[in-house]
Amino acid sequence: MKRVYVQEQWCLGCHLCEYACAFANSGQEQPGAGGLEMSRALQGRAINPRIKIEEKDNISFAVSCRHCEDPVCQKCCIAGAISVKDGVVHIDQNKCVGCYTCVLVCPYGAVTPAESGKVMQKCELCTERLNGGTPACVAACPNRAIVFEER
What we know:
This protein folds into two domains: 1-64 and 129-151, Alpha-Beta Plaits, CATH 3.30.70.20; 67-122, Alpha-Beta Plaits (2-Layer Sandwich), CATH 3.30.70. It has a two-stranded antiparallel ribbon with strand order 1-8. The protein has a two-stranded antiparallel ribbon with strand order 2-3. Strands 4-5 form a two-stranded antiparallel ribbon. By secondary structure, it is of the alpha+beta class. The radius of gyration is 15 Å and the shape is globular. The chain has helices at residues 16-24, 38-42, 72-76, 101-105, 127-130, 136-140, and strands spanning 3-6, 52-56, 59-63, 82-85, 88-91, 112-113, 120-121, 146-149.
């Protein structure tokens, strides 16, 4: 299965992946004519991306869901809101009760509260957005530090 991988040596720490992710998941992106531009859609609002840039010891790297084969977040979800379909770990926000258990158990720090703070969110490889195409963070990375491939 294809997954998002980060090549830390190429990451500039520019945060473009975060903006592309926030825009792709904002509900305001519409491919083709008539869609809002990212800058106008996100202007004046705090972004809440599903991928985060971390910086430590002058090294920048992106943190996102690793889509584990045996996800501990799924095992610990008291509401049964986390499922795996075709290798993609998915959170059903209609079932999520916001207990934060998945946030606590994720070994990668990839699960975060959604904008509302009442339910959780994580990278879902833009499956809803592109039907299995290239995730927004990968497409936006100017230095190809984020790749979408099988390993």
